[in-house]
Design goal:
Shape of chain A: globular
Order of helices and strands of chain A: HEHHEEEEH
Strand content of chain A: 25-35%
Radius of gyration of chain A: 16 Å
Number of helices of chain A: 4
Largest sheet of chain A: 5 strands, antiparallel
Number of strands of chain A: 5
Oligomer: homotetramer
Structural class of chain A: alpha+beta
Chain lengths: ~150, ~150, ~150, ~150
């Protein structure tokens, strides 16, 4: 297995994932090289992340017209382990790797129907003020939800 | 300035960029949080990269029907330094950071019209056999072109 | 119900659909007006169409490296009957409306979980020679498959 | 030239266009059939339309947080006249074909660098109440701007 700096031990790293969404590779997502275009995994990661935030109850809060905060992506990365082809079905897993005061680090893993890892990734999300654009601390309720989910 | 592990010294890192493409943020690239959706910078990076490969003469080679090799993305990452809004004009810079036997590391930087860095990134591209999917060494001609461009 | 020139009678038009694919609206498909961006229904239509072509056995043929023909879209249209929001689940139906010598007309309908039509559409697909770009007649086998599916 | 029901006379239809935006076909917009994916022209049309609405001063109004109205697409269609390839530069023209009380019909034409029409299209935009979702009449100022632009 390739050396990836955010994965210490593959087996334990992999077994920590529980939440996932399912997707199927669309024709419009495949490029002239006949494989999934490299920009699309980030769409899959976002889809998993948004569903994860719904599960946490965060999405409902951020989507309210009066909400003072929104989540922003601070950084994002993806390692492409295997080429992915049209019509493949993928499970896209997501988990919390670190909980900060105003941010969280999320890890991602997509596996195909043979249970092979095809994509892994990570990224930091920061909660910011809608107007200020500055980091805003998680509320108590949010922190509780995050810690409960991380276990 | 934020600490980013692939940037040692901002000033020299920034001054090393020469090649760039220009893009304007489309409405369909903006999401309900009213900023550029986080998946789109990778589209901009690819656009710059493909134009860069055209400049190098690689794209013409890989696109030939009889070509035995294609480029694949091994990994990709992006740091989002500033929120980006509808209709902003960006210059997306790209440069070679490392030349390997079968791969290259590319760095990216997008700046807005105020000359502020809004996105930075990096990623590795590997040349692989179309059928084998295994890494294939750059030809002499390709290596020459890469070294000339890196200077 | 709105007057749409390719729909004579809504009830019989609707009851003729059988084949469908299912999709869920992604966050990245929603725009700053908080509804599904108008460009995305065509992605859903294509997804249904490609699955339909797989069912017909056409996709397998066109995707072979040695294939002499490919399908091209001659025209496409969509009527947006209801605004569509993030996370809605849609069934996207497709059917054959007309079989020509080198082309077919396809009709589309997307319904939400309340069984309401939210999108309807139509478009013509032409089979063309890969090199010539000129229309190429359906083979006997293809015509048989089309007529069987249309019933 | 193909018979298209919203184009009476090609020469006069074409000469009525003045406003346009320019775009270049991205690699990620090309599909395994090596031509522009059929879903992308609608992205180009929207891009032209939004710039057109900016020119009219409408976009500024609809984007204000307190705006009571938004534009919605009622229908949209595209005729694909020629295959379009990676890296082609297109001028995407837009014009007003009809002004209604609450809606407008817009026509589109994309031409390549050889001045050939590669795409034509049309569609209706309706101004609706943000909450009601019901059509809302153009204001006097908006009607003036529309009529001035149509000339």
């Amino acid at each position: 297995m390739q050396k990836i700096d955010y994965i210490k031990d593959w087996d334990s790293w992999r077994s920590d994932f529980h939440f996932f969404t399912t997707t199927k590779v669309r024709f419009s997502e495949v490029d002239p090289f006949n494989h999934l275009n490299n920009t699309v995994p980030f769409v899959y990661f976002e889809d998993a992340r948004i569903q994860f935030f719904k599960e946490l109850g965060f999405m409902q809060q951020w989507s309210q017209p009066g909400s003072q905060t929104i989540p922003v992506v601070a950084d994002l990365q993806c390692n492409y382990l295997k080429q992915i082809y049209f019509d493949e079905k993928l499970n896209v897993y997501i988990k919390i790797a670190r909980i900060g005061t105003t941010s969280i680090d999320l890890h991602y893993m997509a596996i195909n129907t043979k249970e092979e890892e095809v994509l892994v990734g990570r990224g930091r999300i920061v909660q910011v003020g809608k107007k200020s654009g500055k980091p805003e601390a998680w509320s108590e309720t949010m922190l509780d939800a995050l810690h409960k989910m991380k276990k």
